Amino acid sequence: MAYIGIEQIKDYLGISVDTDNSLLATMIDNAQGVIEAYTDRVFKAETATKYFDADNIDGRFLYIEGYDLMTITTLTNGDGSEIASANYRLEPRNETPKWAIRLDGDAAWELDDSDSEISILGTWGYSTTPPDDIIHACIRLTAFIYRQKDTSSDIDRPMMTGDGVTIMPSAIPQDVKSILDKYRRRI
To answer: How many angstroms separate the CA atoms of 75 and 82, rounded?
Structure first.
């Protein structure tokens, strides 16, 4: 699912014809990819199973580094047993997204051998839908990329190759960057 639709970007750019719809769709995908790479986050929900090993465990905590977790459907220990939701809590407790699981009570992380993994079936992503300022950043960045298609080559601007590949500059527009900076994953 794209963060924005073609009609949103066409409205922003004042385009009323459909001739560039395919190009705009590609540029929306490119802008979304830049946003996700810059922030190291995905701003839409995805249900998936992800796997973690002993390197992610520190005592009672399982750190889900590199991912944002919203909800858990099933938490399976490394020995194949399911861990009941009463035996763990997501951290941080009062904020989203979650970045760790803390076991409660007598529960323990069990890994049978070096190939064992803990699996989490859940909803992953920063949020169910992109925040409004991320939507705006995507619109603005898509428009920025689109407008560069008619300019001469310039190393400070994105360039579109003859086969439709967008080559991004080393920097993104400052207004977009200021929106994205607050969402960047900090490690």
So the answer is: 6
Residue count (the chain): 187
Distance CA 70, CA 76 (A): 17
Closest residue by Cα to residue 112 from 72, 87, 76: 76
Output the six-digit token pair for 171: 């920097």
Q: Considering only CA atoms, which of 22, 21, 44 is closest in space to residue 33?
A: 44
Q: Is the dihedral of CA 67, 75, 48, 131 positive or negative?
A: negative
Cβ count within 10 A of residue 110: 13
CB atoms within 10 A of CB 161: 8
| Both structure tokens of 110 | 């069990």
Decide: pTM greater than 0.85.
no
Structure tokens at 77: 């220990």
Asked if 75 contacts 101 with a C-beta cutoff of 8 angstroms, the reply is yes
Instruction: Output the pLDDT for position 113.
Output: 78
Checking if the pLDDT of 170 tops 80, the result is no
Closest CA to 32 of 63, 70, 61, 6: 6
168 vs 34: CA distance, rounded Å:
9
CB 121 within 8 A of CB 73: yes
Beta-strand relationship, 159-160 and 166-167: antiparallel
The DSSP output letter for 153 is: P
Q: How many CB atoms lie within 10 A of CB 61?
A: 15
**Single-letter amino acid code for the residue at 28:** I
